[in-house]
Amino acid sequence: MTTTTTTTTGPGTGSGTSDRPRRLPGATYRRRGTTRRSLALALALAATLSATAGACRSEDEESSLPDRLTDNRPLVVAGNAASTSAKGRDVLREMIDRWNEQDGVRPAELVRLPQDVDAQRSHLIATLQSGQADYDVLMLDPPWIPEFAEAGLIRPLDAALLDPVFTAGAEESAEWDGEVYAVPFITDVGLLFYRTDVLADQGVSEDDLRNAESMAGLLGRFNEAEDLPSYVTQLAPYEGLTVNTLEAFWSTGIDLVDEEGDWAGSSEALREGLATLENIADEGKTSELADEANEPAALQEFMEPGTAMMRGWPDSYHQLPAGQGYGVTALPGSTALGGRSLAIAAEGEHAEDGEGDQDVRDAEELIRFLTHDRANQKALLEAGSPAALRAAYELPAPEGRLCREPPSVLRPAGADEETRDAAQAREVKDAERTFNNLLWCALREARSRPETENYAAFSQTLQGEVHDMITQESVSPDQVAGCLEVLLPLTLRGEPLEEDNSVDACAY
Length: 508
Fold this sequence. Notes:
508 residues; alpha/beta; 6-stranded mixed sheet; globular
């Protein structure tokens, strides 16, 4: 049976105006110095958009959602993930096709959600709460799991689904309040991509990259040549900015949230971490386009002449030109864990007629197939998406020795060729093995983002204030620290910001 794949689309990006020299696809733009809206209004608007996202679709999008079916309806897998290889193979769809080709299984269909991670979350919450469609298996960003569990949108799973050896951070994030709510499917980790020719022009070696203790420290080694930025990353106001901010804080030895999901920061810690991030975002060393860039936009900027380095996710590796001096190594300092875990939606209306238990058993079997099957997980890895299953990596040595020094690898000539001579084939195979080893070692050191049912509010608040700091010259780290010291503890406690008079701390 062939997979039915449905796609839903997210909101488009507004055009707006900008005084920047050129625009990047997928980026949103705001003129420096724009008067900021009140935080309370912005968060209220975000909540409204989240709640109504499912109702704001065109007729085509409305018809693309799976209806509530009764007998023998297919399992519906809803989500999106980086699972397409550089040669266009849709590995996720191939997995679902393999499942459907088996005898005696319940067919499955795939509903692809918007590529934007924040739009995915909004769509899932709106759809699950409104009951507009029966989604069975959900692809969740790990920080969403506590929120979805607390809201009753996903159900506890059989703990045996975590029996295989998964990457440590991904497995830990699959549990909440003592129960298993998800199974790791794809992991993700920040890496440092570089160009050997531009590094040499700026007097920096690959050893400098491997030995750097932090991104801010590494950038300090670069010449501040005019119109020659050294680095690009994702500083647009979305989850990518939260990740970059957390990594800057962690690399400075600062945790804003403790293991219980409670506020652990201070005014001094905020000022120090924000100053580190501001140093990284300094336009003398980082592209001025970074503060409005997401992943595709950062990748395009990285491939422009003159940019030496990029913070990116592993799927960027197979998109880089082969044999032209593009390489990748571990990101200096601390890096955040990303990825997708698979959860099962709480029972819908069909559970009332006795089908609910069978739906859950069928969905668990599909999750087991996607996450436990070594061939499936290895296919993800070959497409450039870090597999969650340890067995997919075929590690050549004990982890301690393998990861003693961070590996680095250049994208070899011949990597994009359909036919290769024997020497090219060996070089490509060796490069893929080294890249997989690099992924595993980076995943061992990666850190989970804060585990709290209020993570979305925490992230959105952090993004908004930090983006003001890096895009408006009149907003300083000290001002933003004073604001976040008030707002972040409130968001972590789930308290409404607009009812607290101390929100005036953000009136800069």
